[in-house]
Amino acid sequence: MRISGAEAVIRCLLEEGVNLVYGYPGGAIMPVYDELYKFKDELHHVLVRHEQGATHAAQGFARATGKVGVAIATSGPGATNLVTGIADAQIDSTPMVCITGQVGKHLLGSDAFQETDIISISTPVTKWNYQITEAHEIPEIMAKAFYIAKSGRPGPVLIDITKNAQFDELDFSYKKCTSIRSYVPKPSLKLEQVKAAAEIINSAKKPMIVFGQGIILGEAEAELKAFVEKTGIPAAWTVLGLSAMPTDHPLNVGMVGMHGNYGPNVLTNECDVLIALGMRFDDRVTGNLATYAKQAKVIHFEIDPAEVDKNVKADVAVLGDVKETLAAILSMVDSKTHESWHNEFKEKYNIELEAVINDELQPKKEGISMGETIEMINKHSKGDAIMVSDVGQHQMFTCRYSKFNSTKSNITSGGLGTMGFALPAAIGAKMGRPDREVVAIIGDGGFQMTIQELGTIFQTQVPVKIVVLNNEFLGMVRQWQQLFFDKRYASTEMINPNFIAIAEGYYIKAKKVTKREDLDAAVAEMMASKESYFLEVLVEKENNVFPMIPTGASVSDIRLS
Amino acid sequence: MENKTFTISVYSENNVGLLNRISVIFLKRHINILSLNVSESEIENVSRFVIVVDTTEKWVKNIVGQIEKQIEVIKAFYHIDEETIFLESAIFKINSSLLFDERQIQNIIKESHSEIVTVSRDFFVISKTGRRSEIDELHAKLKPFGIMQFVRSGRISVSKEKMEITSLLEELQS
């Protein structure tokens, strides 16, 4: 079949099962857009309002579905606007393929109009990238792109296609990529590693599990549950591991990390065996490494060998796909309950309940708290919603207090901490999972970073629910200024516009809540709405997120106030 | 942990962007690459990078892991000096008159086991292959006479132990 390079790009996407892409047209990608027009019944293109929005929407789609998200942009500024989302996908291991147009091959290196070296720019933040300059390369490279993005530890891939390669013709035939000789997506399971881990686990008196996003990416939720239930080991999650197990599971002991729960953080430094499952010991999880779990034997289940011993030295590394390694270890571990050890977590939880949680969920202050808003959403979602949070205090409240019944339900920018992530990510999540309720929780700061995507919501009529928790501050930075910079609130106060008028300007139903007594009815109305809905909640201005591990402190020095 | 000199050997596909991708890994950690050499390897269509850095063993381990996970990298290894045979090459361009006027120059060439590559009316060129210290010594001896041009290559090295690359490739391709 003799077709143009541009048509080949579309056919490759269809071959990979893609029927939804996010993008923004421009000069160097016009041949591809021309084909998108012809294929519009098979391949739906969502016009975002800024290329960054395309990447976050593709990420939201990928995180909610487990499939590869696709974003398309033109050369130059179109391509550079993708970079934040690509970096976010890289650090959070999100499968994404970005396609950028590029000036014609004969113009490369000449500083042509909208020429930018996106390959060099994106190299540090992509799993792989490639510049196509000849039409005949398209099928093979696109197949590689999808294979690399999705296999092993997933990540973003950028394919830059010069304009001549889009116009020129090729003989099209497509073959999916299933291996690359220099690339080992996942190390093969080594039984002796699994056995060594099982021995340590079976002799442990106070073992503790910390599970991360690897469980979700590896679709190992059932294996995790079986392992936790058989061994009876207290299981804590990282921010990105959240929702891999139902939050109300009796063996769950909460979240680790900077704003995680008191018990799992303090007891990290008291456990005798620490079992890390699909997590990478991020500094926001470990606090000061010099005092992190020094007393414990560390068992690290990990797909990426480069993560082993990177931050925390593992006594036993169990390399491989966590779905396979957890399945393999199940028959080797003893059935236990660890009752008295669990009681230590319960005691610590009660301390946190008294010192932090009660006051957050039933506040004595006049202003509405972020925590009680999340709790109200739980009441109406019953834990079935996908919660998409932005970055800051509201994000930590969302992760601390949301109820989740099923996996792939907590979508947030974990590693990169990208403000502006949530609104476009929620669009992608809802389009990927139209059967599920999607609620975006956003601060007044982050909302204004990608506020233009309200236009995408209006144009596509995607029924996402948007909650802006407005404290008229860049709250997390303000909290740090209060605690560590002697209350010098440098550039954190926000003089905000009329958000309701803006939402209504995009013809989105909108409501503002300022009093506690109106919150229940407003959340109920939002959740019942068949269309998109914007809810602004004016919250207490200077509330803080606690507990908190200050930077550089040990996990056991977590502060309750 | 103390800093040491490590030689990193990377076997990879021959790919345009890979050098950039690898150098970024060092750049992110502010590690200065002391020397870099890229050439063909003993395997057809497989390139070999030899990178010399001064860092700690923990970091070199992390870095080798991060290099190895790049898609086009087949395998990466690191060695300390005692575990490798390594050489560098240097060439010196020197004014021809010195060759005839300064007897000492001829002695230096002879004693250092360097080679005269070419002699022309205006200049002559000598080359020296060996350890860095030998090249440095030769440089120091020639410097007082005036060196018109000097250039030294990156380190090339082979490991004393076997690097399991050929069998690995066979395994990958099967």
UniProtKB/TrEMBL annotation, chain B:
Its EC number is 2.2.1.6. It catalyses: 2 pyruvate + H(+) = (2S)-2-acetolactate + CO2. It comes from the Bacteria. Pathway: Amino-acid biosynthesis; L-valine biosynthesis; L-valine from pyruvate: step 1/4; Amino-acid biosynthesis; L-isoleucine biosynthesis; L-isoleucine from 2-oxobutanoate: step 1/4. Residues 7-81 form the ACT domain. Keywords: Amino-acid biosynthesis, Branched-chain amino acid biosynthesis, Transferase. It holds the Pfam family ACT_AHAS_ss. Catalyzes the conversion of 2 pyruvate molecules into acetolactate in the first common step of the biosynthetic pathway of the branched-amino acids such as leucine, isoleucine, and valine. PANTHER family: ACETOLACTATE SYNTHASE SMALL SUBUNIT, ACETOLACTATE SYNTHASE SMALL SUBUNIT 1, CHLOROPLASTIC. Dimer of large and small chains. Belongs to the acetolactate synthase small subunit family. This is Acetolactate synthase small subunit. The gene is ilvH.
